[in-house]
Design goal:
Layout lengths: L1 E6 L2 H13 L4 E6 L5 E3 L2 E3 L1 H10 L17 H9 L10 H15 L4 H12 L4 E4 L6 E8 L14 E6 H7 L6 E7 L10 H7 L2 E4 L4 H9 L4 H7 L4 E4 L2 E2 L2 E2 L17 H8 L10 E5 L10 E5 L6 H14 L3
Parallel strand pairs: 1-2, 1-9, 2-5, 9-10, 10-13, 13-14
Antiparallel strand pairs: 3-4, 6-7, 6-8, 11-12
Helix pairs in contact: 1-2, 1-11, 2-5, 4-5, 7-9
The structure holds guanosine-5'-diphosphate and calcium ion.
Length: 326
């Protein structure tokens, strides 16, 4: 069986471990969000691809949720002493090696999809990892920045409307600055990376991981050609709710959904994705067993959706395959 999975970072990574555990002999391709990607200290950083790669490679820090286990922070400390900006984004020493290899390959002219394949030769994730696009397409957040002086002291002037990089909003401001809109800078020129449309078109089933519906899955769907491939493809599309009991299980997805006018509930996200017959994404929608949802044209099933370990996640994946009648 061929399985395509749309995935963000941590939610996507955990879900993919369950896919691998439930379907060890199947051919799995993950299409991963690259809208969070950013260049800092001259290094090209791909947070979601790295979360998936490290998690499937067994090298992730499961408590922190991102980055490498047994990480050290000496380079970060040195950068801080130099006063090198920005100081709000943590880069671990082991992680920096990945970014150095990636940046060097990109600068030598290799596309991100080739670079990702090269990095994965070390980590052997057991699934094929594809960036959604080889072109830069970075999420920015429109916010009203309060007036402040160069040292960051509050001023008396009016707030300034600015589009800041998603990472600055998410990591520096902890998503606490009210977002007016999300903008994908570069999306007009972005095309699906080689293999993305083919993986969707050839799949027996497409699974939408319980990733952030706005800044992970929504970003992937913003790349021209991906949504169309999902709509036209023969494979059923089954989504898994990241919202349980009216809140994200982990993270700050509740800061993103209201910006699009979407209710923070399993039903809200299901309706936002919509049924394929109505021009939406889904044929089936899995919600947590304490939730209920009605989504026109979509078969909804309630099962436990807490990804506490690979066995629990594999059971979710099997329920998704049953919903696809596989
Ligand atoms: P990020 O890119 O690292 O922010 O990660 P993703 O976009 O892939 O996933 C974030 C989403 O994962 C959050 O909105 C969480 O609600 C969801 N999530 C995390 N753990 C669980 C879980 O155990 N069950 C479910 N259903 N969702 C989860
Ligand atoms: Ca992410």
């Amino acid at each position: 069986m061929r399985i395509a999975v749309l995935a963000g970072g941590i939610g996507g990574a955990r879900f993919l471990r369950g896919v691998r555990a439930a379907c060890p002999d199947d051919d799995v391709t993950a299409v991963v969000n690259t809208g969070d990607d950013v260049t800092l200290h001259g290094l090209r950083i791909c947070p979601d691809l790295d979360s998936v790669m490290y998690t499937l490679g067994g090298a992730h820090d499961s408590e922190r949720g991102w980055g490498r286990k047994d990480e050290t922070w000496r380079i970060k400390e040195e950068l801080t002493v130099y006063g090198a900006q920005p100081t709000w984004f943590s880069l671990g020493d082991l992680d920096i090696a990945t970014h150095l290899v990636r940046t060097r390959m990109l600068e030598a002219g290799y596309p991100l999809s080739d670079v990702t394949a090269a990095l994965c030769r070390r980590w052997q994730p057991g699934v094929r990892l594809l960036p959604m696009s080889d072109e830069r397409c970075e999420t920015h957040v429109v916010v009203d920045l309060p007036d402040e002086d160069d040292e960051g002291n509050p001023g008396t002037g009016p707030a300034k409307r600015r589009a800041i990089h998603f990472q600055e909003w998410w990591v520096r401001h902890r998503a606490a600055l009210p977002a007016q809109a999300f903008v994908q800078v570069g999306v007009d020129d972005a095309t699906p990376a080689p293999g993305v449309v083919e993986a969707i078109t050839a799949a027996d089933v497409v699974l939408v991981a319980p990733s952030n519906p706005v800044v992970s899955i929504g970003t992937i769907l913003g790349v021209a050609g991906i949504r169309e491939a999902l709509a036209a493809g023969p494979a059923p599309v089954i989504g898994v709710s990241p919202i349980v009991g009216g809140a994200p299980v982990r993270g700050m997805a509740d800061a993103c959904l209201p910006v699009l006018g979407v209710e923070v509930s399993a039903e809200g996200v299901g309706r936002h994705y919509g049924g394929r017959a109505d021009g939406g994404l889904l044929d089936g929608w899995l919600v947590h067993d304490t939730d209920a949802a009605s989504v026109p044209g979509v078969e909804v099933r309630a099962v436990p959706l807490m990804m506490t370990d690979d066995d629990a996640t594999a059971a979710m994946v099997k329920a998704a395959l049953e919903l696809a009648h596989l």
